[in-house]
Every structure is written in C-alpha cells, then in structure tokens.
Amino acid sequence: MANSSKHGLISLLFHCIFAHNMLHVMSQWPKGGSTRYYDFKVQMLKVNKLCQTREIVTINQMYPGPVVYAQEDDRIIVKLTNETPYNATIHWHGVRQILTCWSDGPSYITQCPVQSGQTFTYEFTLVKQKGTLFWHAHFSWLRATVYGAIIIYPRKGVPYPFKSPYEEHTIILGEYWNWDLVQLERNVTASGGGAPVADAYTINGHPGPNYNCSTNDVYKIDVVPGKTYMLRIIGALLNMESFFTIANHKLTIVEADGEYTKPFTTDRVMLGPGHTLNVLVTANQKIGRYSMAMGPYMSAQNVAFQNITSIAYFQYIGATPNSVTLPAPLPRFNDNLAVKTVMDGLKSLEVSNVPKEIDTNLFFTIGLNVNKCGSKTPKKNCQGLNGGVMGASMNNNSFIRPNFSILGAYYEHINGGFTEDFPGSPLKFYDFVNGAPNSAPNDTGSVNGTRTKVIEYGSRVQIILQDTGTVTTENHPIHLHGYSFYVIGYGSGNYNPQTANFNLVDPPYMNTIGVPVGGWAAIRFVADNPGVWFMHCHLEIHLTWGLAVALVVKNGVGPMETLPHPPADMPRC
Q: Which first-to-last residue range defines the signal peptide (predicted)?
C-alpha cells in the first residue's frame, strides 16, 4: 500500500474512533448549550507606552485581547493561528476542561507549542461553569501581554443571586515591560538571578497618569449617580500580586474564581496572578472623579518591585473635565493582614459538596532555593544570593519542563522523558517557616527533574500547601489546572493537624490559592477528570525557577471517565 493512502486510512480510522468516543461522551453531555467560535490570531502590535514605541505580542492586535463571551454549558471552539516569530499556546484559566485536557494549553505539559505559521484548534465545554475567568498565553513570559477575559453568563432565564447591576465592566490588572518578554525570560534564566521590576502596572492595558507620557493613557468608567455596577476584576499580573481599591467606595465581593460567594463588603481587595473577583460598587458619593488604584503587594523580604500606583477613573456623569481626582489610599505593600481579612470573608454562597473522607493525602512544601554555581563564568550566570543560582521548588523538587508534551508521552506510553516519583510529602519534616536551611548556596539547593505525581481516578484528594522560609517566606498564588478545589483552611506558621481549623460547610471553591506568607493552606477536590494537570506558582519567575508539579489523573471506567484521543491537528514539538 502506498504510504500516502496508508496514512489516509490510519487518519480515517483515527477520526472514526475519535468521533465515536466523543459521541459516547457527548450523549451524556449537558444539553442546551450553544457552540461559539472564535478566531485568535497571534499577531505583533506596535504600541506607544511610557515614552517608548515597541512591538508586543497580542491576539488579534488587541491589548488586552478579545473577550470570550459564553453561557453556562456552551461549547467553545477557538482556532489559534500563530503569525509571530515566537511559539505560542493559550491556557483557558479556570476552565475545568472535562475530558478535554488536550485543550488546556500549558506548553510542554499538555501540548507542544504552536510554532510560527502553524494553527491549532482548542475545543472545550463549559460544563456547569459560569462567572469571570480569563485566558492567557502559556509559553515563556508572553502572558504579560497575551491575555483577555472569559465571561460566562448564567443560562437563559437564570438570574444572578443578587440584584442585577446597572452595568458590568471588566478590569484587568497587569504589568508592562519595555522588553521582548521571551528574551527577558532567557536573560533572567541565564543570569541565575531575579527578574527586573515591571516598567508599569496597568489597568486594562493603561498605566495611568502617575507614569511618564501616560497622562492620557488612562482607563475610565463613566457612572450614573445612585446606580450599582459590577466590576469583573482579573489578576493578569506576571510577577507581582496587587491591591485594588476605589476612593471613597466600598466593594462587595459576590464571586471569586468563577464561583458565587456570600456577599462580603470591604474597602480593598488583593489579587494575585490567576485570581478573579466580581465586586458590586454603588455610585453613592457626591459627583466627582474618583481614583481606581492598583499597587503592589509584596510579602517577600528584600525583593525589588515597582512602587508607582496605576490609576484609572471612576467618574460620575456630571463631573467637570478638570475636576480633581480623589485619591484612593492603598494598604502598605506588605500588609499581610489586609490580605487575610479579605480571604477570611470568602465563603461559598451555598453549602458545599466538600469531600469528608480522604483517599489521597498529600503535603507539598513550596518555596525558594539557591543552588550552587556550576558555571565557568559566575559573574554572568550566578547572580543569585551569595553567588548562587536562584531556584524554586515543591517538596524540594524543581520542575524542569521537557521539550515534548508530557500528556502526549503519557498517552502514547512513551517512557524516558518524565518520571512518576514525585514525593507525596517532604523527605523530612522540620520547622519549615522558622528553621528552614538558609546558608545559601550550601544547604539551600533543590533537586531538578520532570517528576509527576500519579493519582487514581475518583480519589478524594487533600493537599496541604506549606510555605517555607528558605531565602524568604512569601505569599505564593498556587494554581491547579483542570480543577477547582475547596479551600478548607489556612493559617500562619507550620501546619498542625491537631490545631488546624477546617471549614467543611461553605469554603470558597477556587482555582488559585494565595498560600499565606509563612503559613499553609489546605485544599480538597475529587480527581474525576483524567489527564495531566499542571499545578504551579502563578508568579512567572517562580514557575521559571521550577515551583511546579504535574499531576497525572488516571482514566476511570468507560467513555465518561476516559480521556479521548488527541485532536488530529495537535502541534508537534
């Protein structure tokens, strides 16, 4: 048989099996959702910001990128075409990707990147999901400019569980660099040291009037006195966490990470990369122009950060164009209590379905490392603490992303590229917060490897995430792909099962948890979605340094518990 016809036959068989499997799955799928198509072109865009003109990577030459609008249970199909010289992938952050792990998007975890000139089609169903999520690039540091909102409305005729707002607005908090982001990551990795601070914070891509050449580069919402607005706030920052507040106005949180919460009113919120919050704001002050401000939350010691606040305007209709902007006071950059106060207020709207019995108990330490210098040019490559090389780890394992797709290798039973021996708990327990090794780089090193943790289908999983004091304690925003999880508890110091307080009634259901500085968080979920799921710190520098693990959830029984074949257009490495 000629090669081409043989390939044609294999391809036809593959499509038949894939279609048959998907039909099985779809027969038990939610009914009534629409299919929504989006065309995403990865394109360069010339921008003038901060007194400089440069080209940035975007989707459809939009910064921030296009909004993906949907309703609960809709099917989403996004054709991605890469027209830039860089590799690209898109991660649909917070989408649970039920039986569609191939479309999750992290490069070298579930797919090879989409190379220059190539296309790939992402397909997934928003099963029982609604609220505010977002999408972003998941290759190198491109997500600094490649991001946008995912807005999922309730099904037709289903109201919000609060009074409908007069208007809705999306607020995306970001960081901007006058750098080529792929080159920046390469430079930082090669240096062995930390990342330079961002040139600006941005609100919907605008730095605001506190920055050079940015008096008019400012975002504004015009509001009607007496009306209530819903702000969908998205943390799309790269290496920082940030406070957000509006001068003289209260924020009532009604949703976190795409799940309704009991209404909780506060003066300010903190969002790390990966967090989303919906808040209600009533325009109940005297007519004027009020600042919406974002500024730094930095809980680590001795780390440089951008301290210029980004400002947008919450402007009442009727305010004069030259009216004075009322300032919005932000918490101090290291105000851990302000962060805890908001977290304490987050409770699920309804009684939760938290797993009470646990089959898989995991304990992951998270933190920084300094590895010994192995370079012949230490001044160039060992700019970490005490002439070492900076690293980060979980259970002292620094995750090395391979040059192939782990999901592809796992699915095709290709051995050798990764191992299944990630430790389920630290090799030794000690005072992680106060007694951590700290004579860098002699005893602060980590072990490098592409280690995965295998979890049986249907397991009821509990993970304790414990911050460590090596180099510095810090609030780490930990994100799990493919799942949301119940945040049943958190606290300061070392986790102690005897004294830990758990909320098993109405804990928040989140996809990203800020593990408290010098503290711990406990999460639970049922492993009912097969695939390879990345769990990592969403501060990009820490991910680059290796603060990650891949969780492999095995197939269950039958088509509804089995990951189907990969799509035919899966990119090759």
A: 1-19
Cα–Cα nearest to 298, from 248, 242, 368: 242
Q: Per-residue pLDDT tens for 176-194?
A: 999 999 999 999 999 999 9
Does the model's pTM come out above 0.90? Answer: yes
Q: pLDDT tens, 377-435?
A: 999 999 999 999 999 999 999 999 999 999 999 999 998 899 999 999 999 999 999 99
Cα 478 to its chain centre, rounded Å, is 8
Q: How far apart are CA 68 and CA 66, in angstroms?
A: 7
Rounded-to-integer distance, Cα 506 and Cα 352, Å:
5
| Residue 281, number of CB atoms within 10 A of its CB | 22
Structure tokens at 252: 């009532």
The span from the CA of 267 to the CA of 435, in Å, is: 36
Q: 561: helix, coil or strand?
A: helix
How far is the C-alpha of 413 from the C-alpha of 415, rounded, in Å? 6
Strand positions, DSSP E, 32-154: 35-49, 52-59, 68-71, 75-82, 90-93, 119-125, 131-137, 147-153
Tokens of 62: 């939009």
Residue type at 142?
A: L
